[in-house]
Amino acid sequence: MSAITHTITHICEGFTSVFDTLQDRLASVFKGLRSKGRLTEADIDATMREIRIALLEADVNLAVVKEFVAAVKQRALGVDVSQALNPSQQIIKIVNEELIVILGGEARPVRFAKHPPTVIMLAGLQGAGKTTLAGKLARYLKEQRHTPLLVAADLQRPNAVTQLQIVGERAGVRVFAPEPGNGVGDPIQVARDSIAHARNKLHDVVIVDTAGRLGVDAELMQQAADIKAAVNPDETLFVVDAMIGQDAVNTAKAFDQGVGIDGVVLTKLDGDARGGAALSIARVLGKPIMFASNGEGLTDFDLFHPDRMASRILGMGDILTLIEQAEKAFDADQARASAEKLMSKNQFGLQDFLTQMQQLRKMGPMSKILGMLPGAGQFKQAIEEIDEREIDRVEAIINSMTPAERDDVSILNGSRRARIAKGSGVQVSDVNQLVNRFVEARKMMESMAGGGFPGMPGMPGMPGGGRRQIKQQPKKAPKRGKGISGNPAKRRQQEADRAAGLHRRPQAEAPQPPQSMADFELPPELKKMFDQ
């Protein structure tokens, strides 16, 4: 998986989220601690001040900021810095754990009813993305082997019913819409009738899409409360736009007091707002963030994991989510076949690369995928500059090749490359560049698949590593007469000593291999890399 990602970025050289600004500020705070051997109280006070400013600039609720900073400071002052961690790592560990607490502690899935159908009611302001999110949630539950039913109970907003029907069709989910909407029909009766319809058609989950308003008002609250009383939902989820800042917290509090909510769903996490609402809402409400939507596609939706989100905020990536998405997108048999080809020299061809690249693109934009990798924050600008159209050009070039050319790029002579360039609408230099980069990347992947990583002892690419043999330099013969004195008396004495075996030079002891990992010394360049 990492090799494929590296190959695509290598060929297509040139994570936007609501937490980018906070991530950058926290990274600069922790960077200043790396050179310190121990933490003093003054260091901790200065660090807490910077963290407080970073959180406030990210629009995090003031009460939450105070509680968070106090908890981190108390733990930082009361802990001995571990020998295995530098001060920066120790503070990051504490901040990470406290962020998880603020974000809700642990993921909270849907509580299904003992006797189906499970009823999920969606509430929120207009423009938060409830209707689209209803389709995303339905598709998500369908993948969990449920049979959801979407209910069009938003009869106020123009074309809301039609929109839900389109979204349901895209998600492959049935929609219950007995009324045309646009101000016509009784949403409470529609919601009530949907339960009987679900039982008759054997739907085990009912998702009720309710009307929103441009602001919290008595009419909106009353209608939401009446629908809730009619269907008695197992889950009442408040859908909130993560980009509206502290207003999200205030609106959620109003809904919780007027209707009662069980959980929160965050939308538009891929936006460029400051992200304080996401960090505040769970703590202020005391309600869990259950799901998060981070894109326009129906697949850009998943269970909210506080630990993974905290990891991403601190620039440590989100490997678990990346692995889960890869498992959904990648065909296991094809991946196994590609891995076997990588074990054999020059067997992995452009067709194999194209297949895996297409599977990788199912996971989402490259910038989003690479943003989940640990340390991606250091290369944020480069990741943001990745042009998805470049990947389209790569596909066009490969698709313009014959099967034989894809399997063996060595047969690509000048005339073939000119034909491929013309067929894909690019220059010959673009074809040359693709082929050269593919060959270089394939060599690196074959080296890794053969049991090595460039630059590591005992592996290909290092002296004495893997299958690569380093030619031994022949030992120079000692110069004749070396060490013989020109003084006749001393020369006779040396000859006598040599005859008696007294003039042997002590042989240097052969270097002993390290007896444990503690005795093993990394090369200076690798040691510097790991220290960073």
Write the layout of secondary structure elements.
Blueprint: H1 2-11, H2 20-31, H3 41-57, H4 62-77, H5 87-102, E1 118-123, H6 130-143, E2 148-152, H7 160-171, E3 174-176, H8 187-200, E4 205-209, H9 218-231, E5 235-241, H10 246-258, E6 263-267, H11 276-285, E7 289-293, E8 301-303, H12 306-313, H13 319-329, H14 332-343, H15 350-361, H16 366-370, H17 380-384, H18 388-399, H19 403-407, H20 414-424, H21 428-449, H22 488-499, H23 524-531
Parallel strand pairs: 1-4, 1-5, 2-3, 2-4, 5-6, 6-7
Antiparallel strand pairs: 7-8
Helix pairs in contact: 1-21, 2-3, 3-4, 4-5, 5-12, 6-7, 8-9, 10-11, 18-20, 20-21
Structure report:
It is flat and about 120 Å long. With 532 residues, it is an alpha/beta fold. Strand 6, helix 11 and strand 7 form a beta-alpha-beta unit. The longest helix has 22 residues, at 428-449. The protein contains 23 helices and eight strands. It has helices at residues 2-11, 20-31, 41-57, 62-77, 87-102, 130-143, 160-171, 187-200, 218-231, 246-258, 276-285, 306-313, 319-329, 332-343, 350-361, 366-370, 380-384, 388-399, 403-407, 414-424, 428-449, 488-499, 524-531; strands at residues 118-123, 148-152, 174-176, 205-209, 235-241, 263-267, 289-293, 301-303. Strands 3-2-4-1-5-6-7-8 form an eight-stranded mixed sheet, with helices on both faces.
